[in-house]
Design a protein that fits this description.
The chain has 490 residues and is α/β, with parallel strands linked by helices. Helix 9 runs parallel beside helix 10 and helix 13 packs parallel to helix 15. Bound molecules: S-adenosyl-L-homocysteine, iron/sulfur cluster and FE3-S4 cluster. FE3-S4 cluster binds next to helix 1 and helix 7.
Length: 490
């Protein structure tokens, strides 16, 4: 009988990619993916620790499974990813029915861990070294980049893929858990990345999104002494036959160098879209966050992006209610959002993370209701900015890579609503035939809301020769943070 695997994923794109790879490697061992935890023999949670809420979700999902595991003791429950690395033994205490605890730097061990549980029934713990536990070199080697063979059937659709170009982070923003759970920053060999992109393209992939916590800090010295930056890597993979679009996330403002902006402008397949989180519009807050730049620097950087790459779309992240954020500091953030013209912003309420600098040094002194209000207020400002940005597009014709059908705008019995993205990462919804999924079409923009742009396909003739036609569900938008591999996501 086929063994069945369920995996639930929370967190960032890195986790989405990790889950895809985990499922791919277990499928090669004969497992089949199912969508109900109770249907599975192997039940995995790929977890995130960036905010308390993400952890709470997983602990309650684990709690709900307790009875099921008692009734089916042969089933294996695994906690993978960032919370496994962060909580380690705590998971054992809070969820004693868990069989596998596997950090993001140890995912290559999973098949052996599963085999070991099947053989012995004992809990398997595989985590990497803590950042202060050993030398930089030893900690680095304990975080293994997980890059097994790709399996196109494991992605929401075969024409879009994430490609990891780095692991870890060395920035140590004071609020952030990522450097401790994902380990030291390490860049992958450019030729390995280029080979993966070639392989993906060979399997019908048209769009790759390069992933790194601070993707524009990419640096690699090859044995011949050559220094590679992100701009060099973009040039290296640009001419891969079959690849039509290249994106990269997430950028760190201080590393937004001119060579990168030149590459975005000059390489036609590189999307004119930069996600460069600013986090706050107040210098005192930025200083306490240890973001290493001032608002003045950020504004200048933004102007440079727009001057060098005409028409570029920029998006940001914000944390509201960070320690010591006064009404005045928050007002500065509001002013920045009103003026900066971000395409969109992701706004988060500060969530103290144990053993981060901010948690050690500063009290979490902004009350929850104030965080909530600031979150709503900032969102309202951003929505007005996004609406104005979207309205400016009315009358334009844009090229859209069709990602799938839109469940949100589905009309009962009406024509199929398709959704896709422009080269500037704007979401466009329009009527069309499902055979256009996976193709690039020209759409004339007619209407807009804060979240979506609506239009009409100019011609059903597609741009660029392509034989790929896919019935697969909607692709994973980069901002969708809770999803299961292989499930529709709209
Ligand atoms: N490496 C990326 C993303 C890190 S996590 C970057 O540097 O931008 C994604 C976002 O979560 C961050 O940009 C930040 O806005 C938010 N975040 C991180 N830690 C947080 C915390 N402790 N509380 C609330 N939001 C947090
Ligand atoms: Fe966290 Fe800062 Fe690194 Fe981003 S750059 S992952 S916010 S420490
Ligand atoms: Fe979360 Fe880990 Fe990503 S903490 S945001 S899943 S790197």
């Amino acid at each position: 009988m086929t063994k069945k695997l369920y995996i639930e994923t929370v967190g960032c794109q890195m986790n989405v990619l990790d889950s895809e790879l985990v499922v791919g490697s277990l499928r090669r061992l004969g497992y089949e993916l199912v969508y109900q935890p109770t249907d599975a023999d192997l039940i995995f949670f790929n977890t995130c620790s960036v905010r308390q809420h993400a952890e709470d979700k997983i602990y309650s999902a684990l709690g709900r499974l307790r009875g099921h595991k008692q009734r089916h003791p042969h089933k294996i429950v695994g906690v993978l990813g960032c919370m496994a690395q962060k909580d380690q033994e705590i998971i054992k205490r809070r969820a004693p029915h868990v069989d596998i605890i596997c950090g993001p730097g140890q995912l290559a061990q999973l098949p052996q861990l599963v085999a070991e549980v099947q053989k012995t029934g004992d809990l398997q713990l595989a985590v990497s070294l803590g950042r202060a536990e050993a030398s930089r070199h030893d900690v680095e080697t304990s975080f293994e980049s997980y890059d097994p063979a790709r399996d196109p059937s494991m992605r929401p659709n075969p024409f879009q893929a994430y490609v990891r170009i780095m692991i870890g982070c060395d920035k140590f923003c004071t609020y952030c858990i990522v450097p401790s759970v994902r380990g030291p920053e390490q860049s992958r060999h450019p030729e390995q990345i280029a080979a993966e992109v070639r392989q993906l393209a060979g399997e019908g992939c048209k769009e790759v999104t390069l992933l790194g916590q601070t993707v524009n800090s990419y640096k690699f010295q090859s044995p011949d002494g050559r220094h590679w930056r992100l701009s060099d890597l973009l040039a290296r993979i640009h001419d891969t036959p079959g690849i039509e679009r290249i994106k990269f996330v997430t950028n760190f403002p201080k590393d937004m160098t001119d060579d990168l902006l030149d590459a975005v402008r000059d390489l036609p397949k590189v999307c004119s879209y930069l996600h460069v989180p600013v986090q706050s519009g107040c210098n005192d807050v930025l200083k306490r966050m240890k973001r290493l730049y001032t608002v003045e620097y950020y504004r200048e950087m933004l102007a440079r992006c727009r001057e060098k790459v005409p028409g570029v779309a920029v998006s940001s992240d914000f944390i509201v209610g960070f320690c010591g954020e006064t009404e005045e500091s928050f007002q500065r953030t509001c002013d920045l959002v009103s003026e900066a013209g971000f395409k969109n912003s992701f706004i988060f309420k500060y969530s103290p993370r144990p053993s981060t600098k901010a948690d050690d040094l500063y009290p979490d002194d902004v009350p929850e209701e104030v965080k909530k209000r600031r979150n709503n207020d900032l969102l309202a400002i951003q929505n007005a900015v996004s609406l104005a940005d979207h309205r400016r597009k009315i009358g334009e014709t844009v090229e859209v890579l069709v990602e799938g059908t839109s469940k949100t705008f589905e009309k009962r019995g009406g024509p199929v609503q398709l959704t896709g993205r422009t080269m500037t990462d704007h979401i466009v919804v329009f009527e069309g035939n499902e055979r256009l999924i996976g193709r690039t079409v020209r759409v004339q923009i007619e209407e807009a809301t804060s979240f979506t742009i609506f239009g009409t396909v100019e011609t059903e003739e597609t741009i660029g020769a392509s034989e790929t036609c896919c019935e697969a569900p909607m692709a994973a938008p980069h901002d969708a943070s809770h999803r299961r591999v292989g499930l529709p996501l709209v």
